[in-house]
Amino acid sequence: MVRNIQRSGWLFGAGIILTALTLRGAVTVVPPLVSTINHDLPLSTATIGILGMLPTAAFGLFGFLTPYVIRWASLERLIVLSILAGIVGQVARVFAPNTTLFLILSVLAFGGLGAGNVLLPPLVKKHFPSKIGLMTALYVTALSVGTAVPAQFAVPLTDAGSWQFTLASWAGVSVVALVPWLLAVISPRSTAAASQVAPAAGALELKIHSKPVHKEVAPKMNLWRSPTAWGLTLMFGCTSLNTYALFAWLPEILTQAGLDRAHAGSMLALFAALGLPLSLMIPLVASKMRNPFPVVLVMLACFVAGYLGLLLSPANGTWLWVSLAGLGPGTFPLSLLLINHRTRTQAGAGALSGFGQGMGYALACAGPLFFGLLRQGTGSWTAPFVFLFATLILLGVGAFIICRPKMLEDDFV
Fold it and tell me: What residue ranges are annotated as transmembrane (predicted)?
């Protein structure tokens, strides 16, 4: 039995980390290739803005709906379905004969990724309740790797083959991620072992937090009335808004400043890659802090400094400005950690994850779209960056609320 429990732990751990690797590749592989894709599928400035908005829109919609679906299917079965949707969307869109169908199939791919975003935190709470900080650090680090690598290799792979091959190739990682979840779903031993993991982990939680996670019963919750839920929404949403605005527009900002597209793609990869050390470090450090708001203040300062550099001197010291801006999204792994650290129950974690990520990604839609519209309307990068500065204020307000040592369930007592 002990051996079965250990095997199921490795199986679920591998599934969580491999799934995290797949959740951003379909998004970050596109921006460096916009000019190449434009030869086959016309992409106007407005279309680029829409394409940049689609991931957050799909993440928001499917993320918001996922907690409702959890009532009718297990987390493990839902993650299988979400990965399958991502695979089908990524492969099918490269065969799209026109821009409209390309966008529609991209929504299918992003929808699968969006459901995966919401499912991972409650899966961590379910299978690793005594190791939330460690598992969050590992899977968010994997997510950062899966964000940076496609952007870095997008142009070289396309130069060696085609943009269609480049976009479809990352679906192969999703196929690998699917394997442990299929084994978990079809193997009764894994299911039985998993049922033994939670009590064992809960016993450890009893020593640390006085109340075992698996025995807590979540009260009836209306998250629309919860300050905790709205705090997470603002923190997560504004972090994602800023991140996806730069995912969509950083290559354009830099190429217009005089950099070639390969260099601009490398800078986008640098922006994404800086999430690696932050993803590993922040959950481990913040999990030991009663109130991690000081960490947020450091990240906000990095955001502001990086944006000022990109606005005032994008062609000089580019690596420094991109590096500073890339440190700002350290609030992202902190947000994911707080989903579990500000809830007592698996049901609470699922609800907060769905609401915070669903509403947060809906808010984040404004990032790429408004950034592009302001650029098109003014012919300058100043107005778009002023917009981003304003969203950083909202990020700080939301972080101040969610970082307070108060549980979601306490909002309804």
Answer: 41-66, 78-96, 102-120, 132-155, 167-186, 229-250, 262-286, 293-312, 318-339, 351-371, 383-403
DSSP 203-241: HHHHHHHSS-GGG--PPP--GGG-HHHHHHHHHHHHHHH
Higher local confidence (pLDDT), 4 or 342: 342
Task: Give the other-Cβ count within 10 Å of 224's Cβ.
Answer: 9
And the tokens for 114?
A: 């969006």
pLDDT at residue 204 above 80?
A: no
Q: Which CATH number fits domain 2-412: 1.20.1250.20, 1.10.1040.10, 3.90.230.10, 1.20.1070.10?
A: 1.20.1250.20
Q: How confident is the model at residue 218 (pLDDT cuts 50, 70, 90)?
A: low
In this structure, are residues 362 and 61 in contact, taking their beta carbons and an 8 Å threshold?
yes
Spatial distance between the Cα atoms of 162 and 174, rounded to a whole number of angstroms: 20
* pTM of this structure: 0.78
* Half-sphere exposure at residue 265, Cβ-oriented, CA atoms within 13 angstroms: 22
Amino acid at 158: T
Predicted pLDDT of residue 188: 55
Q: How far is CA 94 from CA 68, 153, 171, 244, in A?
A: 31, 17, 11, 22
User: Whole-angstrom Cα distance, residue 113 to residue 111?
Assistant: 5
First to last CA, the chain: 39
CA distance 268 to 271: 5
How far apart (Å, rounded) are the C-alpha atoms in residues 204 and 212?
A: 8
Tokens at residue 313, please?
A: 């001197």
Buried b (16+ CB within 10 A) or exposed e, 341-378: bbbbbbbbbbbbbbbbbbbbbbbbbbbbbbbbbbbeee
The DSSP line for 50-64 is HHHHHHHHHHHHHHH
CA distance 126 to 128: 6
Residue 259, classed as helix, strand or coil, is coil
Tell me, rounded to whole angstroms, the distance of Cα 24 from its chain centroid.
Answer: 7
Q: Do the beta carbons of residue 337 and residue 133 sit within 8 Å?
A: yes
Q: What is the DSSP string of 119-185?
A: HHHHHHHHH-TT-HHHHHHHHHHHHHHHHHHHHHHHHHHHHHS-HHHHHHHTHHHHHHHHHHHHHHH
Burial of 379 (0-12, 13-18, 19+ CB in 10 A): exposed
